[in-house]
């Protein structure tokens, strides 16, 4: 089932929004073109630290609402070591985001 962009972004974008869920593809396209990727800096923290992507000033049209994030897994399966590491990393990054936001 295709995803659609939030109404707030569609109203403010004034153009077409492409939704792509493969971060490797998005990193490649953003690095090698004039594309602008609207995402959390936490999603590309390593690329920003390495200098392969840069954070641009936030445009006034960016949605300032709240969001909910969740990690799902099947009850009947044991997570792989990589899945456990990914879960830990996501928790760490989201907690950092919350702390940074609270600090202003």
Structural features, described:
The protein has 104 residues and is mostly helical. The chain folds into two domains: 1-65, no CATH class; 68-104. Helix content is 43%, strand content 0%. The protein has four helices and no strands. The protein has helices spanning 7-13, 23-31, 45-50, 81-103. The protein is globular, with a radius of gyration of 16 Å. The relative contact order is 0.11.
Structural class: mainly alpha
Poorly predicted sequence stretches spanning 5 or more consecutive residues: none
Record field, number of beta strands: 0
Give the number of helices.
4
The proportion of residues in beta strands is: under 5%
**What is the rounded Rg?**
16 Å
Secondary-structure element string:
HHHH
Distance between the termini: 37 Å
Shape: globular
Largest sheet, if any?
A: none
Helix content: 40-55%
Structural descriptors:
mainly alpha, 104 residues
List the helices and strands and how they pair.
Layout: H1 7-13, H2 23-31, H3 45-50, H4 81-103
Summarize the structure.
The protein is mainly alpha-helical. The protein is 43% helix and 0% strand.
């Amino acid at each position: 089932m295709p995803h659609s962009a939030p109404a707030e972004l569609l109203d403010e974008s004034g153009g077409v929004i492409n939704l792509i869920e493969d971060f490797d593809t998005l990193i490649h396209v953003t690095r090698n073109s004039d594309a602008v990727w609207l995402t959390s800096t936490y999603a590309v923290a390593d690329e920003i630290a390495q200098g392969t992507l840069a954070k641009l000033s936030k445009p006034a049209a960016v949605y300032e609402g709240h969001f909910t994030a969740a990690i799902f897994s099947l009850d009947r399966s044991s997570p792989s070591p990589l899945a456990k590491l990914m879960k830990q990393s996501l928790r760490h990054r989201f907690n950092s985001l919350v702390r940074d936001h609270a600090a202003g």
